[in-house]
Amino acid sequence: QVPLVESGGGSVQAGGSLRLSCAASGYTASPVCMGWFRQGPGKEREGVVSIQTSYNLRYYADSVKGRFSINQDKAKKTVYLQMNSLLPEDTGMYFCAAAASWPCDRWSAYDTWGQGTQVTVSS
């Protein structure tokens, strides 16, 4: 069973919004940390946002603060990434990931990955 299943993504014009979902379907309970990474064209993968699922502690990269938000539905073991005021530089493949320990902005700790979903923002 695929541990993390993503949905959402697509193409949007700058200033638009998209929502990504990630279901931890391969887990019996929500992982300690769930987060989203992205990899833009010619760029390294970077951590964007994460949530500590027990206490709802959220972490945001500076580049997305005020525009992106992460929330969860613990009963569904699902996290949602709401992306508003999208910019062309937000374009990339977005990956859901999970980590077994916190703090949840320790990006190197994430070791379980979804298949990725493409987000394209046109100017």
Describe what this molecule looks like in 3D.
The protein has 123 residues and is mostly beta strands. 0% of the residues lie in helices and 49% in strands. The chain is built from no helices and eleven strands. The strands form two sheets. Strands 2, 4, 5, 6, 9, 10 and 11 form a seven-stranded mixed sheet that branches. Strands 1-3-8-7 form a four-stranded antiparallel sheet, with no helix packed on it. Strand 4 and strand 5 form a beta hairpin. It is globular, with a radius of gyration of 13 Å. The N and C termini lie far apart (38 Å).
Order of helices and strands: EEEEEEEEEEE
* Rg over C-alpha atoms, rounded to the nearest angstrom: 13 Å
Main β-sheet, in a few words? 7 strands, mixed
How many DSSP helices? 0
Shape: globular
Alpha-carbon distance between the two ends = 38 Å
Oligomer: single chain
